[in-house]
Amino acid sequence: MSLVWLQVGQCGNQVGQEWWELLSGGASEADRYPYVSRNGIANAICVDSEPKVVRRVQRLAKNVSFRDSNLIVGRTGRGNNWAYGYSGVCVPPEESLLDRAMESFRREVERRDCYSGTVLLHSLCGGTGSGLGSRLCEEIRDAYPAGHILSVTVAPHDTGETPLQHYNSLLSLAWLQRYVDGVLLFQNDDVMRQATALSEKKTQTVSGVQPAVSLSAMNSHIASCLAGLLCPVQTLRTQSSVSLGMEPWELIRSLCPMPALKFLHTAQVCRRGTAFWDRVTSSLLQTIPRVSPDGRLHHSLSALAVVRSSQSHSFLASQDAVLGKLKQTYRCVPWNPSPVDCWIDTQNVLDPACRSHSLTVSANHSSAADLMIRVTRRAQAMYSARAYLHWYRRYGGEDEDFTAAFHTLHSVIEEYHQLGQA
User: How far is CA 381 from CA 15, 73, 376, in A?
Assistant: First the structure.
């Protein structure tokens, strides 16, 4: 057991709740490794500045239990302020969330036969998810430099959720670029569109009326994408069908070969009945952003397709055509000799109770630059007007944090823009 699962903030724990419900609902013991030990205890730490969401995760997860010492909760929120979450300011005699979380993390690492890395769930928007999530990345990288860090990051709606979201996103994205190995980036607007499309197919709607999409449905879609990518696959098992639990780290090695480019776009399609893989692939590719707002064509450094189906034999017959279609639509760079990798499993953990199949594709895609451009432009406008900066200085935030973050994201944007230049 080599992995530590870390949920931070309200968003991270809500997505985590859907993940554990999916994993404990119909997944076999082999599919739950390395996230759940043989005695049913999750290899997870849940951290939040308020107890409500963490207690709900503990209560609703079936067939999975959590160590009480790994449920780290505070007494008050972090005011949607990155600096407040990052600094760990607390009122005595309350021990800081950071210290308590790192102590639980240390104990979890010591329980591992050989610690290999961390999967971190958090958001860019809230104070705990963005600020404390950034600090934990920094502390874990410093204490365990040989371990991988894979971040599952949720970006806020473009129309706005809090007045500080652009500052929080700017600083959090910069910290992720510095300290983690890969970022599975989910943007709320994209997740809502995909969840809406799923809802339209499952329910009969009144003409012209869009079905309401709940927060739970959006979180469930993110958790489904994670399960599609991170649950064990036959491709990475030994000849004796023992899972090595290497899915998160093989994903990083496959999709993030260049340290400067590590932000991943994920899409997924699930179907029941006979698998027509050409249709499944076409349906998935409709959700891929192909052009930036300024008309720049998007490109991919690399892509990974994960197929889960009892009808995997039918996929093998059309594998070359499917992967060729993915390579073309994702506009994989010509200088990467093997831009598309493929994993296959003969069971669909996302829908194990019926004849079903799924295709999950994650790509190191230049659409991440679109988010960074929006964030930096809006944060720069606020920063130039000196808006809200006193809220950050109150908790130790400095101008150097902002200027360094702007520089970091501008560098990443430029790297992604150069992808299409052969």
Answer: 32, 35, 8
Q: Look up the CATH superfamily of 3-255.
A: Tubulin/FtsZ, GTPase domain (3.40.50.1440)
Task: Determine whether domain 265-366 maps to CATH 3.40.50.2300.
Answer: no
Q: Which two tokens stand for residue 178?
A: 């510095």
Distance CA 320, CA 315 (A): 9
How many angstroms separate the CA atoms of 95 and 108, rounded?
A: 19
CA distance 308 to 347: 6
Closest by CA position to 179, among listed 147, 205, 207: 147
User: Which structure tokens are listed for 13?
Assistant: 């724990």
Nearest C-alpha neighbor of 231 from the set 306, 316, 340: 306
Burial code of 323-351, b = ≥16 C-beta within 10 A, e = fewer? bebbbebbbbbeebeebbbbbbbebbbbb
3-state SS, residue 372: helix
pLDDT in tens, 165-218: 999 999 999 999 999 999 999 999 999 988 887 766 655 444 455 567 888 999
Q: Which CATH architecture fits 370-417?
A: Orthogonal Bundle (1.10)
167 token code pair: 């500052």
CA angle 186, 188, 193 (to 5 degrees): 105
Q: Name residues whose C-beta falls within 8 Å of residue 146's C-beta, 6 or more positions apart in sequence.
A: none
- Written as six digits, the tokens of 315 are 């996929």
Is the pTM here over 0.85, yes or no?
Answer: yes
Asked whether the beta carbons of 189 and 151 are under 8 A apart, the reply is no
Contacts of 159 (CB under 8 A, 6+ apart): none
